[in-house]
Here is the input.
Amino acid sequence: MKQGIKAYHQNEEADWVAVLACGHFQHVRHKPPFTNRPWVITQEGRDSMLGFELNCKKCDLGAPKDESD
Here is the structure.
């Protein structure tokens, strides 16, 4: 199910995590050549993707919302 990005935070390994409109979290790593997301590197890039919809597999599974640390 597609869900829009509404915010970001970094996890303990300093990877960026998108907070989706549904309340689930999803990593948005830039790890070429397997994951190519150069926009995640800068604040401007991340801001430009707010509202962008990602496929939320947790929604598809009916998982409960993620909780902040």
